[in-house]
Write the structure tokens for this entry.
Amino acid sequence: MSVADRVRVEAVKVLSEDWYVLKKTTFSYQRQDGSWQRQSRETYDRGNGATILLYDPGRRTVILTRQFRYPAFVNGCDDLLIETPAGLLDNASPEERIKAETEEETGFRIQQVRRVFEAYMSPGSVTEKLFFFVATYRPGDRIGEGGGHEAEGEDIDMLEVTIDEALAMIARGEIRDGKTIMLLQYAALHLFGEVRNARS
Ligand SMILES: Nc1nc2c(ncn2[C@@H]2O[C@H](COP(=O)(O)OP(=O)(O)O[C@H]3O[C@H](CO)[C@@H](O)[C@H](O)[C@@H]3O)[C@@H](O)[C@H]2O)c(=O)[nH]1
Ligand SMILES: [Mg+2]
């Protein structure tokens, strides 16, 4: 039995359809004891996305971005947010989109990317599934300035730090973006041999 057999959608109302789509759906869900219960849930649909960690195993460095994020700002982040390069798929494949997004945001042109996992980042309210990638880079792969699309309001800095420094930035609360913490921890576990104690 698939979970779809336990869900009966009764009504869908679009609450907002401006940049992305917010819906309120009323449905019945069959509980584990077999009884049906009516619920309604709001879902915010902005499509799916992709993100990537560029790493240089020889120099033990990673590439991050820094940009203003209004939703984080209104919730207490009085600083630019440090993140791995990321973008919405806009109907492209995750591989194709993340290569283009990496070049737009950081100026690095990457040929080979490796998909490592995927995750629903906020499954109680946001429909988005995020595809996570890693790729090696060398300093010479940077063929442009990056920065994102100014006309769309993007004003993105690129930063290169060692994996040890990036982990220390998580510990100090300077990196507080979920996807970025996930990829840096993946890197510490799987991409860089021995990682020195972030606090030492
Ligand atoms: N006008 C307008 N523009 C918007 C709005 N929301 C986003 N934008 C613009 O839409 C563009 C989206 O840029 P992307 O680089 O494709 O996406 P992203 O915002 O970086 O999203 C990535 O990171 C998110 C946060 O972790 C992820 O949720 C997402 O999947 C993706 O990976 C940006 O120029 C942004 O300013 C809006 O409500 N109004
Ligand atoms: Mg982006």
About this structure: The CA atoms of residues 165 and 198 lie 7 Å apart. Residues 3-45 form one domain. The first strand starts at residue 7 and ends at 17.
